[in-house]
Write a structure and sequence with these properties.
398 residues, alpha/beta, 2 domains, six-stranded parallel β-sheet, five-stranded parallel β-sheet, 13 strands, elongated
């Protein structure tokens, strides 16, 4: 006969534990668990525990780029909401100078003059003839009247960031910048300490899905070639090339100066979308200097860019080789015009310039909010790393 030890013992007081013993055991286990929990709460966090929110980083923008003297300051962006970068406290009020971990200096404003430079400074006044060409609008011709006399010396560990999005050809005063005064560079150059291109391509989440407008309907493209230009200068390579190209193919020009038709900025993308090709001609030719003329004016509008800027190899660091047409691929402007006319007559070949859109989408950088937030992110990632830029002009002009 099989014995049922547990059932018999617990019911009749045999080998099983009496009720009193069970109660004592439960109480002992509970007190042990409480003691372990109290001790655990007092332990320091483990390095692999859930990360705490990043320490707030204060970033001061010394000059708001291209803001006229009488224009109100724009409020700083919300980096978390706009770019998913947390822990940023952004300032335009120079009262935050002492607490800022980084200060951004825009080159165009930096070389205008000394009335509101921070102390101590290491910039020599550029020659008058250079300063005269710095300003892009009438209201920006005088430096801001704000004074920095009340500020103390540069706080220990504060990073100074040189920020510039113009090419070396349009950046006067570089030679007047003292060596080792800046810790970081922030520009469109890929070898900057903080690389902020005018735009970039990023992989689509679902490459197999073709969103609407992947290949712009050819029926909507009523024109062949468009060009939007704001600063007309007959000495520039882009104007000289346009003069040659327009002898063989019609180019509709928009913008300020020259033969351009007025075009509000809000209508630019919509207007260019009606053309098959867009002349993404840079105002000067320098390493990595690929501006919104490619990213917004051409790619975002759905036109095939015809580029004049750095060489083809440089462009191919950032975009597929079959996403654009480079003027250097043709021995003359007339041969380029013949190629554009060939593509106009052969829609299947023309659509080949849009294949990259199946796997990638276009991001156009948001100025000046995005560089500001990216500078904050760079401070967070750098930790205690320290450096300075010994020869800024030599690096940027190479």
């Amino acid at each position: 006969m099989r014995a049922r030890w547990g059932r018999r013992g617990s019911r009749r007081g045999g080998p099983g534990l009496p009720g009193t013993h069970l109660a004592l055991l439960a109480a002992s286990l509970l007190s042990t668990a409480v003691a372990i929990y109290v001790c655990w709460k007092q332990l320091p966090p483990l390095p692999w525990a859930s990360p705490s929110p990043p320490r707030p980083v204060n970033v001061l923008l010394w000059w708001e780029p291209f803001r006229g003297r009488h224009n109100p300051r724009r409020p700083p962006p919300d980096c978390q909401r706009r770019f998913n970068i947390s822990g940023c406290v952004l300032h335009t009020d120079r009262a935050a100078y002492e607490e800022a971990q980084a200060v951004l200096f825009h080159h165009r404003d930096l070389v205008k003059g000394p009335p509101d430079w921070p102390p101590p400074w290491g910039v020599q006044m550029p020659p008058v003839e250079e300063r005269e060409g710095l300003v892009m609008d009438d209201e920006g011709q005088e430096a801001e009247a704000e004074t920095s006399a009340a500020l103390g010396p540069r706080p220990p560990g504060q990073r100074w960031v040189w920020m510039n999005f113009e090419s070396p050809s349009h950046s006067p005063g570089l030679q007047g910048l003292a060596g080792n005064i800046f810790n970081w560079t922030l520009s469109y150059r890929a070898d900057s300490d903080i690389f902020v291109p005018y735009g970039y391509l990023y992989p689509r989440t679902h490459p197999s899905e073709q969103p609407p407008g992947l290949v712009p309907p050819l029926a909507r493209k009523q024109g062949l070639v468009a060009w939007v230009v704001s600063n007309w200068d007959e000495r520039q390579a882009r104007v000289r090339y346009y003069r040659q190209l327009s002898q063989y193919v019609t180019v509709d020009v928009f913008g300020k100066g020259g033969p351009g038709q007025p075009l509000p900025d809000a209508e630019l993308v919509h207007t260019v979308a009606r053309y098959k090709f867009y002349l993404a001609f840079e105002n000067s030719q320098h390493l990595d200097y690929i501006t919104e003329k490619l990213w917004r004016n051409a790619f975002l509008a759905g036109a095939v860019p015809v580029v004049l800027g750095p060489n083809r190899t440089n462009y191919e660091r950032f975009v597929p080789s079959n996403a654009f047409i480079h003027v250097e691929d043709f021995p003359s402007a007339s041969s380029l015009a013949a190629h554009l006319q060939f593509l106009d007559r052969n829609p299947t070949v023309y659509r080949g310039y849009f294949r990259w859109r199946r796997s990638h989408a276009v991001h156009v950088t948001s100025f000046w909010d995005e560089p500001w937030c990216l500078a904050c992110q760079a401070v967070q990632k750098a930790g205690n790393q320290r450096k300075s830029v010994p020869n800024l002009a030599g690096w940027f002009q190479q």
